[in-house]
UniProtKB/TrEMBL annotation:
Any one annotated GO CC term: nucleus
Name the UniProt record assigns to this protein: KNL1 protein
Domain of life where this protein originates: Eukaryota
Knl1 C-terminal RWD domain mapped to chain residues: 1-110
Record-linked PANTHER family: KINETOCHORE SCAFFOLD 1
One GO-annotated biological process of the protein: attachment of spindle microtubules to kinetochore
Amino acid sequence: SFTEWELMEWSEQQAVFNFLYDSLTLTVVFGSPVDGEFFAARPSRSIISLDFESFLDEEQAPPSSCLVQRLIFQFIESRGSWQDKCPTLHYLPQALFDISLVVNRCKILGEELEFLQRWGAKFHLLETDIKDTEVKLLFSSSVAFAKFELTLAVSHDYPSAVLPFRVQTHIGNIGEKEIAPVLSRVPAGHHYLQRIVISIHQNLLDDPA
């Protein structure tokens, strides 16, 4: 019921769709009409190719936007040949829906990261760093006498799957043994990353008084 795409062109030769604030383009090239199959009350067409292209300026874009783009292309590449899955116009709406779903989820992840970078100090989050498809969260609390780095590996499945993690302790005795049970109580789902940070703050770093 939702769309993350904007139709930029529809001609006899091709259709062009933009996603994610015009930073991602899908070009669908049409072939010959398909006998006995209709699309939008007109004879359907075969699809020769579906080509994805990124227009994100990675040098200028914030790290969260680069991560979002990487995850979306991770999904695109994981599906193999899009032309095999979308041989005619009949299959195009489902393809657009599948892409929209991943774009929407990854876009929300980008918004979560921006929120944490802006308001992380409220949760004893000193630093948020992004490297490739890993999110590194540096926590520091004088109350808990603890400083540690939590690294989460995100993928295009976010937020539907539990995030693999590792911990590096800098100060104090909060490590993987202490963090694992806290993370296990945070169910995957909407705003998963934010809820992980809030749970660590509440269970391990906040003033027990």
